[in-house]
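Weekly puzzle thread! Below is a chain. First person to post its structure in token form gets bragging rights.
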Amino acid sequence: MKGGVAARTAYMDGNDKETILARVEMYSKSTCPYCIRATELLASKGVRPDLYVIDAGGPKRDEMIERSGRMTVPQIFIDGRHVGGCDDLFALERSGKLDGLLAA
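Winning reply:
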């Protein structure tokens, strides 16, 4: 995986059982409202993604384009799998599929 190793997130559920969540990476810009929305949705799930802030472009932006085939932010990866941008993340949530991907 070219994006580096993203940390898995662990949390205690309501039954005092530790749950391990998938690795989440997100290419972002600091003033992007879609990036903020995606980060907030993930935070509501107890996920803190590894953020690659590409405000100034550079090698991380090139890496994002190579990995995703897209030039817009955010670009989100769950366990190395490209799931798309903010709208795609919310579509996964609406369809009930996001929790399954995050509980890998």
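Puzzle host: Confirmed. Bonus trivia for everyone else. The chain is about 35% helix and 25% strand.
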